């Protein structure tokens, strides 16, 4: 399996992936800095360091769940659509292992990106806030105890959640369906559920449930995909 992952990574444009990661982080930091233009927005959205971390997590998850759907469309859905996957299936390698290797790459990248991006954005905004005082809220260098554990759980949930778009994309080998379903998941998580603007994302059990569902869906989709004839 490790060799299959290495081979698949060689086929990917890792430089493009790295550049996209940097650009996404820059965009999130930029959006947070734009809040500083409107004092009322700062008062509403950045009234405490906890609020800032929640907003960052929401932006990061939204960005990388959608980006994961793009990666899935590139390395799996398009290959089935164009039937180039048939060439890989000709090798004496288990079809399941080949597809699982692709899914592992997307899941691991999503896990890493969510953790790294959350920390990068937080400390980048902290540095800019010290220079330009976007918000009067005191943002400390030290994160609350247990936050890294919370972040790891969230990242694991996202690594599974990021696989859900595969179900929709593989139904008719549709790239747009894959990406649109990723956007729909983000919209669902960020939607308000009561008058206090609490969203589904703030209920930890929801992303965890979607993460488990994503892993189950991926197993189901792979089991069905390996039976296809080309």
Task: Give the beta-strand count.
Answer: 0
Helix proportion of residues, in percent?
Answer: over 70%
Outline: elongated
Largest sheet: none
Rg over CA atoms, rounded to whole Å, is 19 Å
Question: What is the ordering of alpha helices and beta strands?
Answer: HHHHHHHHHH
- Low-pLDDT sequence parts: none
Quaternary state reads: single chain
Helix tally equals 10
What structural class do the secondary elements suggest?
mainly alpha
Topology:
Blueprint: H1 2-11, H2 14-34, H3 39-45, H4 49-81, H5 85-89, H6 95-132, H7 147-161, H8 165-169, H9 175-190, H10 205-225
Helix pairs in contact: 1-6, 2-4, 2-6, 4-6, 4-9, 6-7, 6-10, 7-10
Give a description of the structure.
Helix 6 (95-132) crosses helix 7 (147-161). The longest helix is centred in the middle third of the chain and has 38 residues, at 95-132. It contains 10 helices and no strands. By secondary structure, the protein is mainly alpha-helical. It is 74% helix and 0% strand. The chain has helices at 2-11, 14-34, 39-45, 49-81, 85-89, 95-132, 147-161, 165-169, 175-190, 205-225.
Question: What would a concise description of this structure say?
Answer:
This protein has 230 residues and is mainly α. It contains ten helices and no strands.
Descriptive keywords:
230 residues, mainly alpha, 74% helix
């Amino acid at each position: 399996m490790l060799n299959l992952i290495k081979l698949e990574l060689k086929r990917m444009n890792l430089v493009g992936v790295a550049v996209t990661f940097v650009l996404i982080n820059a965009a999130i930091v930029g959006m947070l800095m734009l809040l500083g233009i409107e004092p009322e927005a700062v008062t509403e959205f950045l009234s405490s360091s906890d609020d800032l971390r929640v907003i960052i997590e929401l932006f990061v998850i939204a960005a990388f769940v959608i980006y994961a759907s793009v990666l899935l469309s590139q390395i799996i859905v398009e290959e089935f659509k164009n039937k180039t996957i048939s060439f890989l299936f000709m090798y004496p390698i288990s079809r399941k292992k080949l597809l699982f290797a692709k899914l592992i790459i997307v899941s691991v990248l999503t896990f890493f990106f969510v953790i790294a991006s959350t920390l990068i954005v937080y400390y980048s905004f902290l540095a800019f806030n010290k220079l330009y005082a976007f918000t009067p809220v005191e943002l400390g260098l030290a994160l609350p105890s247990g936050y890294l554990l919370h972040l790891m759980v969230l990242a694991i949930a996202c690594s599974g959640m990021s696989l859900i778009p595969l179900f929709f994309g593989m139904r008719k080998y549709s790239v747009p369906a894959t990406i649109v379903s990723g956007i729909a998941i983000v919209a669902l998580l960020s939607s308000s559920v009561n008058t206090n603007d609490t969203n589904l994302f703030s209920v930890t059990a929801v992303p965890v449930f979607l993460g488990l569902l994503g892993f189950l869906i991926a197993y189901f989709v792979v089991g069905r995909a390996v039976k296809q004839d080309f």
